[in-house]
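Hi! If you just cloned this repository, the fastest way to understand the data is to look at a raw example. We've pasted two of them here, unedited. The first protein comes first, obviously.
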Amino acid sequence: MATYNVTIHWHGIRQMRTGWADGPEFITQCPIRPGGSYTYRFTIQDQEGTLWWHAHSSWLRATVYGALIIYPKEGTSYPFPKPKRQTPILLGEWWDANPIDVVREATRTGGAPNVSDAFTINGQPGDFYKCSSNETVIIPIDSSETNLLRVINAAMNQELFFTIANHKLTVVGADASYLKPFSTNVIMLGPGQTTDVLITGDQSPARYHIAARAYQSAQGAPFDNTTTTAILEYKTAPCPAKGSVSVRPVSANLPRFNDTQTATTFTTTLRSPKTVPVPTEIDENLFITAGLGLNNCPVGAQASSCQAPNGTRFTASMNNVSFSFPSKISILQAFYNGVPGVYTTDFPPTPLLKFDYTGNVSRSLWQPISGTKVYKLKYGSRVQIVIQGTSIFTAENHPIHMHGYDFYIVAQGFGNFNPKTDTSKFNLVDPPMRNTASLPVGGWTVIRFVADNPGAWIMHCHLDAHISWGLAMVFIVENGVGESQTLEPPPEDLPVC
């Protein structure tokens, strides 16, 4: 029996009219209590590729996650030659401690949580840790064959670089959307993102390291600076003699931890394989800042509870609103049943105060307000969101995930977004479709989508330390006309609070 409350999020599934199955705790449901149960019921429509599922309650997703693969419909095929093999590769993050204790200690102190002790590939840390390298994951390949690797970043708090020694990666998909293929030596994934790559067995039969390590964009912030490995092994490679030292794999070269240029080059190269229906006329034009902050120590609080810099507590916000989760009913239940007092609909569509977002920000702006604020969208409205990073406390790359929707990333850049000049950079022809966008460190990203899925949908940073500090907001998309545009009734076994 489970020890903790839990919910499960089916990351990237559109959940058309089935928001009750989306999973984030106190957004679409109350948690499943120990000893309780809940059946998630949903239909996958017009989606294909690599997604994943994970717990969406506290830090349980550190260990509760897995791949979710949607194959082509019967009678159809991939937009590339069918690979000989397919292998999910889940990049994880591991603490030599109970992750729930780690986040609870951070909440108590107001400081940053302890960094992880290892990264993992399919649950194993690999050859460079003092843990057992005998269990290092081995991925098979044969000479001349082409295989599909479905790479998923399930880490809690870290963007990751990923590479394979001496092998080119042909990128063909991301977040369950196909892409215009291109070749690269390294890919970068933020937590929540998936990337499909083809590899060909075109090297000498041997063993080659598959490796991942941190991309850390926040200057001076502590991070897990270790490297996890698996082994790409040719079936015709020489096997180590019984009892002998294993044949050492060929080493992999990874970028430096702060190589923002490599990360940016990768994310800006992604393109849809053909012209896509990007909304060109916009009904809702939002400008949302995202970043960290510091709360003053509450009056009367002990110093042990204010261990962020200068005796403060870490916080995070969107448009200077630090999101507070309800505790007695979910936002979707409150919306569906008309329960007052759970949330307010005054989330600001633009910052209440304009400032130099990526410059030297006045300390008076470092402390956000706290609230459970949502933004309402009419069904069918065409939405553009400029997500602007800030340098409050520190600038950082944030993986921004939206529930219930895919969206087109039409542009990204560094510095402050300038609507007079940066709109000329918009790609309205073949931008990539994602469910999690990498907001560049000290920069901005522009996304577009059509609000055609009624319900309550959280948009948040997928660095779990940041969502626990309030880097989130919620869209409530109203019902349209007729049954096909209306949220389904809640299931009978929906957990109660």
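Ok, and the second one:
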Amino acid sequence: MPEYNTLDDLDPGQRVLVRLDLNSPVEDGTVQDNNRFDRYSETVRALADDDHRVAVMAHQSRPGKDDFVSLEQHAAILEDHVDRPVQFVADTFGEAARDAIEDLDAGEVLVLENTRMTDDELPEKSAAEHAESEFVQTLAPLFDAYVNDAYSVAHRAHASTVGFPPVLPAYAGLVMEREYEYNTSVAQRAFDGPVTMVVGGNKSKDVINVANNLGKKVDNFLLGGLPGELFLRAEGYPVGHDVGEMAMLDDQFEATEETLESLVENRRDEFGLPSDFAYEADDGGRAEIALDEIEQKDDPYLDIGHRTIDSYVPVIEESEAVFVKGAVGVFEDERFADGTVELIEAIARTDCFSVIGGGDTARALDMYDIDEDSFDHVSIAGGAYLNALTGKELTAVEVLKSYA
């Protein structure tokens, strides 16, 4: 049984405040549809079908950023996914928002304005402190229950994620419940065979934190992306340096050099490291170079090479469980998608427990027509997924447990 209340515990026909995470890419002012809307529509639809009056809170970006926009477009996209009318009010907790909430009928859905357009939202505070804010104190009396489904911001102690459980009966939504169960499974479940984690992305600290927390749970770490280069630099190879416009490696190495060298020295057999890399050739195509042929890094490495892919695939195929954190290459560019796509496809055809996650990694499935049903779980979370892997508490989940 979950340690928190779920939708199964919620009586029908109530006025419910729901926190989702609809944060989405914005291109030329247009909010892009994505799998988040599809996932969260399940919770919204389930609540509306149970005759709840549903008001949705969500955020988009942060103040000062180009994609910090209203949620009006988000409401229209959500409407397409829930297959019922979704209203929008350009107000978070003012008079217009309160009137719209009070006018809701059973089964109706309303999206409130971007939570980050209110000053009370972003400061990191305790649940008790947020519960005293004007934002929470104004909205809470209008509702019978609060549902948090925004797992991907569950590591944030913001007003909308932790401030309502102290003052309203609180429940986990469908996405929250599934994400938490699967993303903590690597630490909590016992597997009979080898456990492998594919780790890419652009932060060496991610690998270090995961390795330190899960070292006894994971048998093989297969590295790509920037972490792969930085581990190799710690081993003495002439990679992991900034070249051209890429300026992310030298500072990271300086900050983590001692820890990386310790892992290489004491736990080298746990890590699969790239034996070749792909880069952009002079003619604009994909070129590959073997690690032992590199005398000096002259080009940014944008993917692992096929020699590395061929060495990683058998490890995946022999695993009882495989977890993915981050892409091993710049998969958004088809020339440099081979590593990410071929490893994910290997996981898909292997009879193993599998979880795909980490920032935008799940987008590769859509881009390259990989069936999501081939995996046990595909996470839409980034920071919260990483926190679950590294054993850090998820603030919003702990608050749901505390007030269950």
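That's it. A detail worth noticing about the second one: The chain has a mean pLDDT of 94.
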